[in-house]
Amino acid sequence: MTPQGLFDDALSAVKAWHAALQPEHAFCPWPDDLRYEPRAPRSLPATELIRVAPGRTTPLSTPVVEAFQALSPHLEWRLTYTQDEVGRHFLNNYGWFELAGPEGHFITHQTRITVGYWGPGLDYPRHQHRAEELYTVLSGSALFKADGVPDRILKAEDTCLHLSDQPHAMMTHDSPILTLVFWRGEGLADAPALSAA
Ligand SMILES: [Fe+2]
User: Fold this and answer.
1) What is the predicted pLDDT for the residue at 189?
2) Do the Cβ atoms of 146 and 167 come closer than 8 Å?
3) Which of 13, 56, 91, 117 has the fewest CB atoms inside 10 Å of its own CB, making it the most exposed?
4) Domain 3-186 has CATH 2.60.120.10
5) Ligand 1 geometric centre to CA of 17 (Å)
6) Is the pLDDT at 1 greater than 90, yes or no?
7) How far is the CA of 167 from the centre of ligand 1 (A)?
8) Tens digit of pLDDT for each residue in 80-93?
9) Residue 52 contacts by C-beta under 8 Å, 6 or more apart in sequence?
10) 149-168 as b/e: b if 16+ CB within 10 A
């Protein structure tokens, strides 16, 4: 299959996931301006990690995870954070890509859909951003923390909403986690900033 065929398959799997889960389609409508944009692949440790160790899935999330595993060598994987901010171990076990959005593999200006992978034993520091985001877990699990709400352990099909500029953090323990994140509001293309202590 061509890379574009793999991207189309992954987008269809994500669209079905979005339609099947109430928090997801309540958060944002499925965008109607999606346009495939060829992008050079960028390989990171996460390229292989999501293929060999995605963590526990559910019947509903399995097709999405498998689509991303097939797509992984064609993805423009990104890191955003620096070694000074998060450490080398974090960067060796983490990666994300923008499936759809202002700078995604599919261009849309209506929302942003990103995918993030964290290996076991990582401490994702407290950070924030202007756009609101809805984390949805595809596989594995992690402890989610956000200012003003109790800590929660999330697993596949669970969701977590972060409001505009609400500081939040995440810790993985024995399991990795693969997340699909929907974004809305102002600042869709902004990078997150680590929060003040
Ligand atoms: Fe975030």
Assistant:
1) 86
2) yes
3) 56
4) yes
5) 20
6) no
7) 8
8) 889 999 999 999 99
9) none
10) eeeeebbbbbbbebeeebbb
Per the CB < 8 A criterion, the answer to whether 144 and 177 are in contact is no
Minimal CA–CA distance to 60: which of 5, 112, 113, 137?
Answer: 137
Contact 165, 98 (CB under 8 A): no
Q: Are strands 159-162 and 123-128 parallel, antiparallel or unpaired?
A: unpaired
Output the CA 2–ligand 1 centroid distance in Å: 32
Q: Cα separation of 195 and 197, whole Å?
A: 6
Give 162 Cα–ligand 1 centroid separation in angstroms: 7
Q: Which two tokens stand for residue 158?
A: 């669970």
Angle between helices 45-52 and 62-71 (to 10 degrees): 140
Q: How far apart are CA 114 and CA 103, in angstroms?
A: 10
Cα 60 to averaged position of ligand 1 atoms, centre (Å):
24
Q: Domain residue spans in the chain?
A: 3-186
